[in-house]
Structures are given as C-alpha cells and as structure tokens.
Design brief:
The complex is a heterodimer. By secondary structure, chain A is mostly helical. Helices cover 65% and strands 1% of the residues of chain A. Chain B has a domain at 158-249. Chain B contains 14 helices and no strands. Classes of the chains: A mainly alpha, B mainly alpha.
Chain lengths: 366, 281
Amino acid sequence: MDRLKTLMDWFDVRLGVREILRSNLQGYLLPRHVNIWYSLGAVLLALFTLQFLSGILLLVYYLPAADKAFVSVERIMNAVPYGWLIRTLHMVGSNIIVAVLLLHLLSVLFMGAYKKPRELTWLSGFGLFNLSLILCLTGYLLPWSQLSFWATTVATDAAGAVPWIGEGLVTFLRGSPSVGAGTLGRFFALHVVAFPLLFLGLVGFHLFCVRRAGISVPPFGPSARPAGVGTTFQHEVHRDGIPFFPNYTVKELAVVMFVLAGLVAITVFAPALFLPPDALEPADPFTTPDHIKPEWYFLWAYQTLKIFPSKLMGLAAQGGAMTLLALLPFLDRGEERRPFHRPLFLTLYGLGILLLLGLSIWGHRS
Amino acid sequence: MKRGVLASLTLLLATVMPLTAAYAESTSASGEAAAAETVCLQCHGGQAGRLGAPVSPWRQSIHAKNGISCHDCHGGDPADFAQAMSPERGFLDVPAAAAIADFCGRCHVGVREDYLASAHGRARERGPHCVTCHGSHTVQAATLELINAKDCSRCHEFGRAGQIKEAVAAVDARILAVERDIAAMHRIGFATRELQDELFNLRNAFHRLFHTVDVNKVRKETEDFSRQLDFLDGKIAALHAELQWRQLVGSGVILLLLAAGVLLLLLRKTYADEERGRKEE
C-alpha cells in the first residue's frame, strides 16, 4: 500500500494525476436523474475492449491466406486451448455490439441528446456506428468460408453500380477482378490495423466531446425544460449531481455484468445463433450456396435493395437515409428535448423503428 | 465553412453507406450457379416432353445436391452447345439395360461389384438394375425404405428381402442417429470432417452389403458394422462430454457475473440512499 502511495506521489509531483483523477472521477458530477440508458456507452466500451483482446488472441493462430484461413479458424475452434471460447466470444460479441449500438443510438435520439451543443458528439458516435458495421463486414471474410466468400463477392460487386467509376471501384476493393487471395489480404489489413486505429481515434474524440460538453440532463420529470443553449462555450455542470465515481460507475458496471452474462450464455449454450451453416464450409468459388441471408443487422438494407427497381437507386436511398440521420442535429435545431413535447419527431421516430423492423422481418422471410 | 463541413459529411456518408449496404446484396446469389452454366441444363431445361423431363427430377435429387450434373454421368462437353453430345467428347446416351450396372458402377464401384455377384446381377439381362429400385434422374439418398413389399413383389415374394431388411434395420437406425449427432456437433463448430468421412465409408460399405442379397452374409457382417458404430459413438460421446464441461463452467461464470451485477446494484442503492440523505440535510 505504501509502495502504491509512493508511486502515486511520484506521478503526482510530475503530472498532477490526483487532480486529474479527482476532477474526472469523484469531482465529475452527473445529473441526479441519469437513467440506465446512459450506461450503454460504458457497455460498448467494455464490449469493444473484449473485441480488441479476443481479436489479438485470434491473430496469434489465424493465417490470412486463401488456402490456410479456413483451416486455421477450424484449428482455433478445435485444437488451440480455449480457442473456441475466444473465437465464439469475438463472433457473438460483434453481434451484441451492433444491438447495443442500435439501442444507444435510439436512446440518444429519443432523449434529443444529439441537439446543440452536442452535434459533434452525435457525429462522432454515428461515425463509430458505421465504422463498427464496416468492421463487421471486413471481419466476415476472414474465416474464408462459403458464406464469407459469396457474401463478399456480391457485396463488392454492388460497388459496380456506381456510375463511371464502378468497375474500377470493384477491382480496387477486391485487389483482382474476382474475390481471391488479394481481397483477403486487403480486408485483413483493414480489419486488424486500419479500421481499429481509426476507431480508437474516433472513440477518443467521442469521449472528449462527451466530457467537454458535459452529460445531457434526461428530458423527463416535472423540472425538465428546454436546454436554452447560449452562443459561447459553456461546460454543462450539475452542482447538485451525483459523483461519476463510485456512485454512478457501480450502476454502469452492473449493466456491464448483465450484458457479459448474456454474452457468455449465448457463447456456451447457443454458439450457432450467429453462425449460419454456410459459415462452417470452406470457400468454394465454383459452388454458390443456396439461401444466403445477410446478418440480421443488414436485413433491412437487403430488403430495401430488393424493393427498388435498380441497384443504384436502392444504394442511393440508403445513403440518403443515413446522411439525413447523420445531419439530424443541423436540421432539427429546436431547443425542446422532451419527447412528448415533440409530437412530429416522436411520430417519425416510431414509424422509423417500425419500418426498420418491418423491412428486417420481410428480408428474413423473403 | 458550415456548408463545406456539411458537404464533406454528405460525401463521406454517400461513399461509406453503399459499401455497408451492398453487403446485403449477398442474398441475390442463386444456389445453382455452377449447374446453370452447363449447356445441357440450359437446352434441356427449356424443352417439353421426354427431352426436358429429366431436368426437374434431377434438381431434387441427391446427385444435384452433391454437385453431380448431367455430364458427370453422360459425358460430353458441358460448356459447348455444338459438342455437348459429341461421342468424341465422351458423350454416352441412355445405357442398355444390361449395361446400367457398368454405367452407374463407374462411381459406385463397390456396389457394382456386389450387385454383379448377386442373384440380381446374374439375372441382369431381365432382372432388376440400379434404376429399378433407385430411379434414374430422381435418385435420392438410399434408405431402408427402398426394400419394401410393394417394389420387391413386382418380381418375387418379399420373404427373403424382408429378412434382410429386418437384419439391417437396427444398424441402419444407428447410422442415422450417428449422422444426426455428427451434424449437431458440426453445427456448433466442432471439426467433424474425420467422423463424417468414417461414417460415409461405413455407410457405403453397409449399403454395398444389401446388394449381395445373401441373408447369411448380411446377418454375419451386420455385427461387424455394429462394432464399428460403437467406436464412432465413443468419439461422439467425447465431444458431448467436452460440450457439457463447457456449459457447466459457463453456467458458473454466468452466475458469478449475475451475482456481481446484483451486488453492484445494491451498492448503487446504498449510494442513492446517502445522496437522498445529503440532499435532505
């Protein structure tokens, strides 16, 4: 204990760490009525940390070559001690992350937390959401299974619908005219180096925005009022709030524990939940499997593409919808954040969720 | 400046989103890409009557499921309309009755051998051929149901065929059970290729046995197959034990995580009580 204090003193003299810790832990006050939805950010941090750690462990045995990748994954699952656990946690974790990201995004929308002065927090968060989906997409190819191969073949092929540069874009994405060893190399580099680095930077910026602007007050209860944001920077302080540590941290940790329990439950009792049968067969460029379905979080997009008469129109509609969502803080500029005082927004919010669910179910059954 | 930022964001999203959305396109892939490329299917698939009749039953057959297409049996050039049915490219027309065993036996070598040595094979000029029991283009995975009173009685009494069916029924049921067990283990990520290959060989040898139509030989050798299945069962039991161990340890971890979550919530409640007390003061 004395040694720890001595070490702390050493750092404190040089960097003033005690002051940093105090102002960001015990001295960092959150709104008194902060609800459980605010803990989803901590859940995501915990899950992403698990993805990074399990990903690094998988890298020890994974071989990113077309003739070795599938066998190496099979070896990880069957011969490497606890390899099955690491790989299944990584695979199930990616699906849970998307689910929690969606919940986080929907709760921020519902509580109007994207509004001024938190536009940059929203934009960086929305960027992280998209980057996570791209990480899922690039990670999907790495096991070099039938599903990986054919999903990537058609996904990269869709880029050909872009006018003028389509053909060149397809070759650029694949590294060759068709999906092959070059594609695997590219996706591997993007999945394990380029995107994680970008992701870390964006997470840092997102957390900086959250801390700098201050946590938004939940827009519920009799005392809730429109924000009334000024024209100069002002950190939102909550003088009668509760300390971030340990008072609120224990609640966040509790939610993290419950989500991890769910993750372990799926990993050991339902490992096939996110593992379609075609993901268990090695890639065969000469045999297209029947009934390939995208992951559940892409079903809405899949069905949208089928509704429109041309691929380009479908892609443009999706790009347009996502752009609209990204720019929402700049379009919805009213200060009112109470959901039940925003009937138009609430109606569109409900319809949007129903549309997302409807398209996903339709896509699953089609 | 503001407009520039908005324009950049729009461009970024318009570029990134189609990439993620495009993934969803994967489902448009057809399940018969390899088969659809053969000119045999393209031409015969569009014909009515006798010439087009084989295509539809073949699509439902075990051959189609395993990627065995027209040219695998009938030869010819599956990529060239002009040479598709050329004898120079190895095209074989419908075989004569006595040649059917040799036609099918190019792949089913062991079965051909036992069939030719059997009473059925010796009478092949007029007797039952492969297609009599299995059908031709509609061929399905062989099951014990192929030995039945209705079909066998077309040529002779069911008696001896019934005895053979009775002798092999138990082992056949065990083979099916082992197959289901292996599939279940494969489904959750266990490497079962070796087990699948062993069962494949065992089943082929077992089905070959039927074709001898020799009751005594079938009874004697069925016991050997039963012993081989015991060995496979042992390997599957080891996988089940591994799975149970994972679930047992996993249950412990889940309970610990839930307990930690509840304790942390209780701790939060303690803090909340303190916060209320401080506020009232």
